[in-house]
Amino acid sequence: MKHTLTDEQLMIRDMAHEFAKSEIEPYAQEYNMKGEYPAEIIQRLGSLGLFGMMVPAQYGGSEAGAVSYSLALQELAYACASVAVTLSVTNLVTEPILNFGTEEQKRELLFPLASGEHVGAFALTEPGAGSDPGEMKTTATKKGNTYVLNGSKQFITNGTYAGLFIVMARTAPGKNGLSAFLVTAGTPGLVIGKKEDKMGLRASDTVEVFFEDCAVPKDRMLGKPGMGLKIALNALDSGRIGIASQATGMTRACLHEAVEYAAERKQFGKPIAKHQSIQNMIADMAVELEASSLLVWEAASLKDLKIHFTREASIAKLYATEALNRSAYRALQVFGGYGYIREYKIERLYRDARVTTIYEGTSEVQRMVIAREISNG
């Protein structure tokens, strides 16, 4: 079935589409070639209100909802996955504050995030703790009215430019000994490390982050002591809708690039789009795009209805990201040798696609989550 969108959802989708077409697409290749963070584009996203789509009006947002957010993210990802993931990770920071923050924390921290004045960073992964947060080594030691953080985080998106970090750190032994902290940029002891030289998403900022006797006031703990794992898992449920949306937008871009090229390229006396082998690949991409879109729609709709959506978010993330990787492969195959040349968008899409099955929970972790949800009824 086709999605039935409200007038507001249509308006948001169309606004994001026009912005992506005119303000992102013409410059995306250059930013990615240079490995340059698109600061001006990110600022303009903020002025359009796209950072505050999940934030209530009382804290500076539009509270447009998960479906609207997903639609906008798909349009941005179609043009540039790096821009889309910058928005997605900032949303990964705003939602835990909404769900677990005090009223004072919400009023102080959500306004600059919702306006786009600040992007956010979610500091969970460590060099030795990725899929298993129980191995986390970063510590937060209580000293009077502060917690002192020591440790390091790896692969932190937006780290160089973030105005606010949500940091997971160990306050006690065991998996229930993790707590979450709100750390603002410029806090003494918060050190931004090297920028990672990545295969894809080269216009997205990814860095190491170090905490060296970083003192955080106790009122900047998010939630209660020991709630860190719960907060992280709750955030990742929503984050997976974001990554699935990103992947769906990228799949649409792969299909578009392949269809246009196949209509122009001639072999054996006719456009390659007339050859059955090419038609098969295009058909497979179209089917997977439709399936991804429906799965993302379901997860986002459940979230808007405030119905438990952990399983649906993991299903959408698993399917959409793996479908994207298959579609990027097929699209590059349609291009042949030209798809391997950097001046073509499909080369960038192919590289950008790979990480989507890894971050915010690998495909293997998604399968674990889905199986657990089914087993628990």
**Approximately how much beta-strand content do the residues carry?**
15-25%
Q: What is the terminal-to-terminal distance? A: 27 Å
List segments where confidence is low: pLDDT < 50 over at least 5 consecutive residues.
Answer: none
Strand order of the largest sheet: 1-4-5-8
- Helix-strand pattern: HHHHHEEEEEEEEHEEHHHH
Structure description:
Helix 4 (81-100) packs antiparallel against helix 6 and helix 6 (228-264) runs parallel beside helix 8 (310-335). The chain starts with 6 loop residues before the first helix and ends with a helix. Helix content is 53%, strand content 16%. The chain has 377 residues and is α+β, with helices and mostly antiparallel strands. The protein contains ten helices and ten strands. It has three domains: 7-118, Acyl-CoA dehydrogenase/oxidase, N-terminal domain (Butyryl-Coa Dehydrogenase, subunit A, domain 1, Orthogonal Bundle), CATH 1.10.540; 121-226, Butyryl-CoA Dehydrogenase, subunit A, domain 2 (Beta Barrel), CATH 2.40.110.10; 230-375, Butyryl-CoA Dehydrogenase, subunit A, domain 3 (Up-down Bundle), CATH 1.20.140. It has helices spanning 7-34, 39-47, 66-79, 81-100, 103-115, 228-264, 276-304, 310-335, 345-354, 363-375; strands spanning 119-123, 139-143, 146-157, 162-170, 178-184, 190-195, 206-217, 221-222, 266-267, 270-271.
What is shown here, in short?
The protein has 377 residues and is of the alpha+beta class. The chain has helices at residues 7-34, 39-47, 66-79, 81-100, 103-115, 228-264, 276-304, 310-335, 345-354, 363-375, and strands at residues 119-123, 139-143, 146-157, 162-170, 178-184, 190-195, 206-217, 221-222, 266-267, 270-271. Helix content is 53%, strand content 16%.
